[in-house]
Amino acid sequence: MAELSQENIILANKIATRMKNLREQKTGPKKMDFVRKYNVEKQTINRWESHIKLNEKTGEKRGRGITIYSIKDFCKLVGITLTEFFDDDLFRE
Predict the structure, then answer these.
(1) Which of 20, 31, 38, 53 is least surrounded by Cβ atoms within 10 Å, i.e. has the fewest?
(2) Any alpha helices (H) in 1-93, and if so which ranges?
(3) What is the pLDDT of residues 17-67, one digit of tens each?
């Protein structure tokens, strides 16, 4: 698999942030409220919202981002389209 560019890491982290923001809008700050309402495992939420981090000393990346399929499934859960997901100021910067 190809190494992610810095630009793609930034995009992946924006997606994770957007998912967290939408989750909190739907059910509040507690992940367990989302788990109960949408019957999703907490580990799944953790994967959705995890950022790719870069070790400044070694340059090693931790995390892997999320697939477009997972974003689509999330959008379906919360009742929005992919267009609505990406139509956010976060992606206009």
Answers:
(1) 53
(2) 6-27, 31-38, 42-49, 68-78, 82-86
(3) 999 999 999 999 999 999 999 999 999 999 999 999 887 788 788 888 899
